[in-house]
Structures are given as structure tokens and as C-alpha cells.
Amino acid sequence: MNANELLTRLCQAIDAHAWDELAPLLHEDFVCRYVHTGETFDRDSWVRLNADYPGFEHLVIDDLVASGDRAVARCHVTARADGELVHFEVATFITATDGQISSMTEVWTDVDAVPPTATRPVSSLPSPLR
After folding, report:
1. CB of 11 within 8 A of CB of 75?
2. Global confidence as pTM
3. What is the average pLDDT across 100-105?
4. In this structure, how many other beta carbons lie within 10 angstroms of the beta carbon of residue 20?
5. DSSP strand E in 25-121: where?
6. Cβ 97 vs Cβ 27: under 8 Å
């Protein structure tokens, strides 16, 4: 399988809660890095993390780009927390080796995140006319 097919199948298996289909897509030396938390997972721990994630409901691919042995997807994820539906976005970058995913980097964020104070231009100030 090429990188495009691997990432597509991985996302489809996660959405279907088909946890037993994940490990065969991952190389025996698979490593996943979560940029936002600094965590690193091997194949078994990453599969377990996904299978055991509390309240997970769906993962939908919003965008997928691939070239050669590399692919990246931007996905929308929903889960239940305290009875409420919560939304996340994830960017997943993979490298394929020998028809399996050998490395992955993921960046997760809450959809309702608010920019930190003073990190955006002040749009309410009038611009001078000259």
C-alpha cells in the first residue's frame, strides 16, 4: 500500500472502531510523536491509546495530501465528555516503509480554543487615511 492508501485506511478503521485493523497497518518499528504533549508511542501503545480513548465517536477526513512515501490528513474528531459532544481537529503526518506506516506525527487541538491574549492585531483601531 502507498502512503495515501495507508492513511485513508487508518482513518477509516479508527472511525469504524475497528481497533484490530490498526496494528497490521503499522510497521513493527512504528513510532508516533504527539507534538502538542511531547509524548511518543510505539505500535502497541498507540493502538491501545486509540482503542481505550474515553468517549470517542467519529473521525472524518477533511483533507488528505500525499506524495511518494509521505501523506498528511486533517481530520475532525468527535467524542463525548460528561455527556457533551466535544470536537477536535488533528493533523496527522505519516511516512510509509515497506507498505506500512513507519512514523507518524500528530498535532491535536480543541475546536473551541481561544487565541491567547495579545496574539492578534487589534482590528477595532481605525486606520489613518492619507
Report:
1. yes
2. 0.86
3. 98
4. 9
5. 26-34, 39-42, 56-67, 70-81, 84-97, 100-110
6. yes
CB 24 within 8 Å of CB 98: no
Percent of the chain with pLDDT over 70: 92
pLDDT in tens, 6-47: 999 999 999 999 999 999 999 999 999 999 999 999 999 999
Domain ranges, ordered by start, for the chain: 3-110
CB 10 within 8 A of CB 102: no
CATH topology of domain 3-110: Nuclear Transport Factor 2; Chain: A, (3.10.450)
Backbone angles phi, psi at 113, to 5 degrees: -65, 145
The residue written with cell numbers 495530501 in the block is: 65
Stretch 71-88: mean pLDDT, rounded? 95
Residue 10 grid cell: 487508518
